[in-house]
Request: fold
Amino acid sequence: MSDALILPGHEWPQMQPGWVWLCGAGPGDPGLLTLHALNALRQADVVIYDALVQDAILQWAPQAEHIYAGKRGGKPSAKQRDISLRLVDLARAGKRVLRLKGGDPFVFGRGGEEAQTLVQHGVPIRIIPGISAGIGGLAYAGIPVTHRDVNQSVTFVTGHDQTGEKPQSLDWHSISKASEVIVIYMGMKHIAQIAGDLIAAGRSVHEPVAVVTTATTPDQQVLETTLGQIEADIAAAGLEPPAIICVGRNVLMRQVLDWQGMAAGQPLRNVDPLGRGRPAESA
Ligand code: SAH
Reply:
C-alpha cells in the first residue's frame, strides 16, 4: 500500500477503505493540483477519472487501477448513473476510491449528484475542491476574472444543459444586465446563438470576448475577439472545445498581463487597456 503525503507541519488525511474521495484535478496543468489531491493520488486503490484529466496527473498514482469515465476522445461515453453506481460498488468492495474530475468537482461537473448518490448508498465521502477552468484557465491567459475597474460581480454559466441543448432556463437579459463579466463553460456548440442573445439583451457587438481552449496545457490557445465577431473568428481560427469563453472588458487586461507571452520572450507592454489614464496602483 502507498503512503500519505509527508510534508512537515500538517497531518495529511489517510484514505480509508470503503471511502470515495471526490476530487478536482484543476484545469489541466498538473502543477495546479492541490496537495490534498496529490495526497489522495498516492493512496488510492482505484482512480476513476474524466476526459479532461491529464495523463501526468494519473502517473502520480502508479499503484492504483485507473478507470476512464469520460465522455470525450472517441471512447464510449459512460452514463452518469453508471459512474455513480460503479463508485458505490468499488467502495463496497473495500477500495480506497479516488474520483478525479476536471477543474472543481462542484462547478458544472455533476459532482454534487455523484456525491449525493454515494451518500444515499451509505458510502462516506470527502470532497477536495479544485481550480475551476473559468478562473484558472482565464488566469493562464492573463485575464483576471475580476478587476476593480471592470466588475464587482461575475456570472458563471453553462452553454448547454444535460441534453446538449442550450439551456432554456437561462435569462440572458437579466444576466446581461447584472453582470459586467460573464464566463461561459461548454459554450462552443451554441456560441452563435449565445452571442446573439447577449447582443439582443443590450451588450455591444464591440464588447471584448476571449476564448481560451485547452487552458493551462501546452496546447492552450487564446482568441481575443468581440461579441459581433466571435462566431466567424472561432471558425477562422479552427478552435475546438474544451473552451472557456469570457465576455467583458476584463479581457482587455490580457494586453498587459499575458504572462505566458512574456515567458515566450515577448516584450512587456506597459499599455493602458482600460483607458483610465492613470497607473493601476493609484487611487
Ligand atoms: N468542473 C470543471 C468544468 C466541467 S464542464 C471546472 O470546474 O472547470 C466542462 C467544461 O469546462 C468544458 O466544456 C470547458 O468549457 C471547461 N473546461 C474545463 N477544462 C478546460 C480547459 N482546460 N480549458 C478550457 N476549458 C475547460
